[in-house]
Design a protein that fits this description.
The structure holds two protein chains of two kinds.
Chain A (H helix, E strand, L loop, with lengths): L4 H13 L7 E5 L4 E6 L2 E6 L14 H20 L2
Antiparallel strand pairs in A: 1-2, 2-3
Helix pairs in contact in A: 1-2
Chain B lengths: L7 E12 L4 E4 L13 E4 L23 H6 E4 L4 E12 L8 E9 L15 E7 L10 E8 L6 E2 L4 E9 L4 E13 L1
Antiparallel strand pairs in B: 1-11, 2-3, 4-10, 5-8, 5-9, 5-11, 6-7, 6-10
The chains are: A alpha+beta, B mainly beta.
């Protein structure tokens, strides 16, 4: 399973752009490797499977997963700061 | 037009999702998403009984919007008046959470969908019918399942031009990563 950071960023930006006036929250369940973005009852879920790989075809490390989470959190923060 | 009566139409799609939480109704993303078979968007709520409408927990701007009916939910547009007569599914569940009892596969339609409606009006999705996956107990192991259901109710009626698609919901606990395929059969009326 490909977990391309750029694709995840695109998916998140498109979702947030649907509603520029409502704040969103991001939660990260490290044990289950699930990222949840919720915006007042609407949301989207990203999950890393055990065979998740980066765009180079290498298995994701814990550090790479955390980097993706941090990147997505930054996008959520940007969205919230523009409200 | 005589060809319409009893005409059988079948729609099918593959999907990949993560049903991380209960009381979330998951559906597809727009086709211009980079992973458009990844059904990772949800609205907080429950799949309603056949003939009833989905009532999102989020009010106002966070409710379902009209443009999301064709862009997200719909996998099929009824070319003629027809009725849902069957749903079937096959799935690969890699690691459901302890307490997950089943997944619900529901056919939904937007029958309140007219030309030139504003794209930002709230949408109303109506359940045509659903099928539950095989019941599980305790801490289920990763598994594959298949199943089907048949219907003969006017709750499954859709008009030509209505958006029709599928949504997913986990019960008991999250179902985790799920990949699979859904097929729906409609009969012309």
């Amino acid at each position: 399973m490909l977990a391309d950071k750029a694709k995840l960023k695109i998916g998140l930006r498109k979702f947030l752009a649907q509603d520029a006036t409502t704040a969103a929250t991001l939660s990260w369940d490290e044990e289950k490797s699930v990222i949840d973005i919720n915006r007042n009852g609407r949301g989207m879920t990203f999950a890393f499977r055990s065979d998740a790989m980066n765009a180079e075809g290498d298995y994701l490390t814990s550090e790479e997963k955390q980097d993706i989470v941090d990147t997505l959190q930054t996008i959520v923060d940007e969205h919230n700061n523009q409200i | 037009m005589s060809y319409r009566n009893k005409t059988i139409m079948t729609w099918t799609t593959k999907f990949d999702t993560n049903l991380a939480a209960i009381t979330n109704v998951y559906f597809g993303v727009p086709a211009d998403n980079t992973n458009f078979l990844d059904w990772d968007q949800y609205v907080v709520g429950d799949v309603p009984a056949a003939g009833s409408t989905l009532s999102p927990a989020g009010a106002g701007t966070s409710s379902l919007l009209k443009w999301e009916s064709p862009a997200n939910m719909a996998q099929f547009v009824a070319p003629i008046n027809c009725r849902l007569v069957a749903i079937s599914y096959a799935l690969d569940m890699s690691n459901p959470s302890s307490g997950c009892t089943h997944i619900r596969f529901a056919a939904m339609s937007d029958s309140d969908f007219s030309d030139e409606d504003s794209r930002t009006e709230n949408a109303t999705w109506t359940s045509l019918g659903y099928v539950d996956s095989t019941a599980m107990t305790g801490d289920p192991a990763g598994q594959v399942q298949k199943g089907s259901a048949q219907f003969s109710s006017s709750n499954g009626d859709v008009n030509a031009g209505d958006c029709v698609g599928a949504v997913l919901e986990a019960f008991g606990a999250g179902a985790g990563a799920v990949s699979g395929i859904i097929t729906m059969t409609f009969e012309g009326s």
